[in-house]
């Protein structure tokens, strides 16, 4: 399956005379793309704050739909993404609506994040330059993706302020209420050789309409490909 392996096509030219048999190997534009991202939510209002760095990752494998080597091409992929945002509040539910309550001032903690993991299917248009003297080229990709949530959870490491025990605690809470079970978005990726930059925008909020804050996800970071 192309989702699991890069696809290679081998073309063999054989001659019947005394010359040695010649082999030509053509490698398609299929690739595994890894994006290391900083995650950010729009519409977060003070006093709730996000940490400057909230790392996430996307791993996709693509197959080129137009099999000839071309300047313009279309690729279809599938893969996994993990969206993490570190902040200073904890979600709680009241009357089926999700709110965020600040961690009390003075409480020491080392981690407090909300994580949502997705299975995504991206579709993109690729524009590839001619190979330069270093046998490298520029690649510009613009695409859209749809995803289905695999799971979500909250992770906290710090002082136990819920029970006022003062002890160091570590816990995860899975299946947070009112999180959207799907998403869609748009992205761009610009790279030279195997390294580049990428950004995603997702119009849908993290939580269902009228059931939580309207946090809109934006991600940006570096990308590299494995061919």
Fraction in helix: under 10%
* Ends apart, CA distance between termini: 16 Å
The low-confidence parts are 1-28
Secondary structure tally: strands: 13
Account of the 3D structure:
It is elongated and about 65 Å long. It has one domain (29-226): Porin. The chain has 227 residues and is an all-beta fold. It has no helices and 13 strands.
Short description:
This protein is 0% helix and 61% strand. The protein contains no helices and 13 strands. The strands form three sheets. The protein has an eight-stranded antiparallel β-barrel. The chain has a two-stranded antiparallel ribbon with strand order 1-2.
Supply database-style keywords.
227 residues, 13 strands, two-stranded antiparallel ribbon, 8-stranded antiparallel beta barrel, Porin, mainly beta, elongated, disordered N terminus, 61% strand
